[in-house]
Every structure is written in C-alpha cells, then in structure tokens.
Specification:
This is HAD family hydrolase. It is built from nine helices and five strands, in the order H-H-H-H-E-H-E-H-E-H-E-H-E-H. The chain is mainly alpha-helical and 192 residues long. Helix 5 links the parallel strand 1 and strand 2.
Amino acid sequence: MARIHGAIGMAGDQLLDHVLGEDRDHADDEAISAAHQALFARFWPRLRAFDGAGGLLRELKRRGWTITLASSASGRDLAAMRAVWDADDAIDHATSADDVEASKPAPDLVHAALAKSGAGPGEALFIGDTPWDVQAAARAEVPCVAVLSGGFGERALLAAGALEVHVGVGELLARLDDSALADPARHTTGAS
C-alpha cells in the first residue's frame, strides 16, 4: 500500500514502473491504460472541485498571472475536470499527458506549459500537490508552491523542494497575500 500511495500523482507511464518495477512485462500497458480511462470516466459525475479552486484561479488571473494548467491527466480527463472547476474564464492555456513523452516527475509537462504560455522558467510559478509535481517543476527550474491535497505531508513536499506549503487550495486563496503568488510584480518570476 505504501508503494502505491507513493505513486499518487504519477501518470501511468511512471506509475506502473514505480509500483511493479521497470523490468516488468510492458505488453499489457495499453490495455491497463484503456481500463483506467474507462474506470475513471465512470466517476466523472462524482468529481468535485477542491474548495476555493475556481476562486483561486480567478483571483490569480485578476492579479495579473497567466494561468496555464499542466495536468498528468489525459486530455479527455482534463476536460472533465475543467467542467467541474467551472473556471475556464480564468484559464489561458492547458496541457495534458497527451502533449508529452514522459509524465511527472519528468519535467516534460512543465516545459510544455511554459511553451504554451510563452514564459521562461524564471517567469513562472507552479502549484502542485505531490512530490512528483515539485520535482518536475524543479527539473524545469520553476519554483513550486504546494498544497496538501495530494495525500503527502508538508515534510515530503518541502523535502522535494516546495517553496511553500499550504493546507489546501482554499487556504492558499485565503492567505494569498502571504504567498509567493501574492503579486506577479513582487515575485522575481512572472506567471504560469
């Protein structure tokens, strides 16, 4: 169970190797991925946004940040999640697992988000909730603000290199003025 829990936040290309070992038989990877897609789609009607998610996106946009989603989810799963967030008016760009070769902790997803936003690593901040998010951002030379919604504790996120850690998205929104995300002009990096 600990090994499976430690894989939360990884996409399938990384998760199966992490849980089953890199020397495993890869012949069934496509079937496993298709089964995961079908199972997850059954839960779309039950998806709920974290408290404050839409509000955080809108407030960051209002403050001058460019909002670029960088999700390990497939494009169709990301579309389902975006519908739940109901904050497309605040989202400028999005990238998903469909746009990259390797998922987090590889930096590919962060690089894709930077390319879509037109920002460089020194002009972005990443928000994530797993050590894999923090590591992917660090490998792309982008600081990461973390929240505890991914099932990992503050220590794990800070050890992975998080700039700061917040209890959740709603708490980050409530304490935004004390965060690195407070004002893009105050931060040495810009937006993403």
